[in-house]
């Protein structure tokens, strides 16, 4: 099986994908546009490995060996010999298309090009390449080292072979896969959480119930590990707003139209845990 992976984007998702892949024995090149971003990403990986060692889920030797399998670079050309490339950059279709267009001219013919997008149709991203049959969605969940799910998304032209390679990769790094056979915006998981968050935010906005009570209802009534508004704060209110807007733009389905409150929260910088204030105060 292919063992050389390139991850494009060293943010929370990209560094997490690099971490679990290196731990599973893959040789990983992690690429971002600045050395500072790469340093933040590798610091996060190192800290995560240290926590696993402290909990005795990894030995110090295993953590050191995994870390040694990750190399960092600001040069996209470093992806040229990768068997699989996973893109994990900001959720903007033009940014992703530009990366895939460049990768298309760099990587070997048999390489699989994957996107970690949570809401943008894979077909749109694949259209920037001359090999749409080799493009697939590999939607990991945050935090990647802890979350077991990977949503595999088949674009309009994704081949069976490409889907099988993506599954083999995701399973090799310890993930359980679900397959999205029709490339609808938001796939399965982002459509479900977006619809729930939008409705929860509307209930909160209109004073029907407090954020705490809405989340408690979902936790105790439906068995959710975390309520939708706490989930929005963890994910980032801006990230979820962007995802719901993408789905609404594609589907024109009113249930995905984000409420005014979410837009104003983002305008004000109340983005959730990362800013100290969202639906809750941190």
UniProtKB/TrEMBL annotation:
Name the record gives this protein: 3-hydroxybutyryl-CoA dehydrogenase
InterPro entries: 3-OHacyl-CoA_DH (IPR022694), 3-OHacyl-CoA_DH_CS (IPR006180), 3-OHacyl-CoA_DH_NAD-bd (IPR006176), 3HC_DH_C (IPR006108), 6-PGluconate_DH-like_C_sf (IPR008927), 6PGD_dom2 (IPR013328), NAD(P)-bd_dom_sf (IPR036291)
Protein's GO biological process: fatty acid beta-oxidation
Coiled coil regions, renumbered to chain: none
Domain 3-hydroxyacyl-CoA dehydrogenase C-terminal span(s) in chain numbering: 186-282
Pfam families: 3HCDH (PF00725), 3HCDH_N (PF02737)
Family: Belongs to the 3-hydroxyacyl-CoA dehydrogenase family.
Keywords: Oxidoreductase
Pathway(s): Lipid metabolism; butanoate metabolism
Residues with site note (Important for catalytic activity): 139
Domain 3-hydroxyacyl-CoA dehydrogenase NAD binding: 4-183
Binding site for CoA: 48, 55, 118
Molecular function GO terms recorded: 3-hydroxybutyryl-CoA dehydrogenase activity; NAD+ binding
Secretion signal, residue range per the UniProt entry: none
């Amino acid at each position: 099986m292919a063992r050389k992976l390139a991850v494009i984007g060293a943010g929370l998702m990209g560094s997490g994908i690099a971490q679990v892949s290196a731990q599973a024995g893959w040789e990983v090149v992690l690429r971002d546009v600045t050395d500072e971003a790469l340093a933040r990403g590798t610091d996060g990986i190192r800290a995560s490995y240290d926590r696993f060692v402290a909990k005795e889920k990894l030995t110090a030797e295993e953590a050191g060996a995994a870390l040694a399998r990750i190399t960092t670079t600001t040069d996209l050309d470093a992806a040229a010999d990768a068997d699989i490339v996973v893109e994990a950059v900001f959720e903007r279709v033009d940014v992703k298309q530009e990366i895939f267009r460049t990768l298309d001219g760099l990587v070997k013919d048999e390489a699989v090009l994957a996107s970690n997008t949570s809401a943008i149709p894979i077909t749109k991203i694949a259209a920037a390449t001359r090999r749409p049959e080799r493009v697939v969605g590999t939607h990991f969940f945050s935090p990647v080292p802890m979350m077991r799910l990977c949503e595999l998304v088949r674009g309009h032209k994704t081949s069976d072979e490409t889907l099988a390679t993506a599954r083999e990769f995701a399973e090799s790094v310890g993930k359980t896969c679900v397959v999205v056979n029709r490339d609808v915006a938001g796939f399965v998981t982002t459509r479900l959480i977006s619809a729930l968050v939008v409705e929860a935010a509307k209930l909160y906005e209109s004073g029907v119930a407090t954020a705490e009570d809405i989340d408690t209802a979902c936790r105790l009534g439906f068995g959710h590990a975390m309520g939708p508004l706490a989930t929005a704060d963890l994910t980032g209110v801006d990230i979820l707003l962007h995802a719901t807007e993408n789905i609404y733009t594609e589907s024109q389905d009113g249930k995905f139209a984000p409420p005014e409150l979410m837009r104003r929260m983002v305008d004000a910088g109340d983005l959730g845990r990362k800013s100290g204030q969202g639906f809750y105060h941190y």
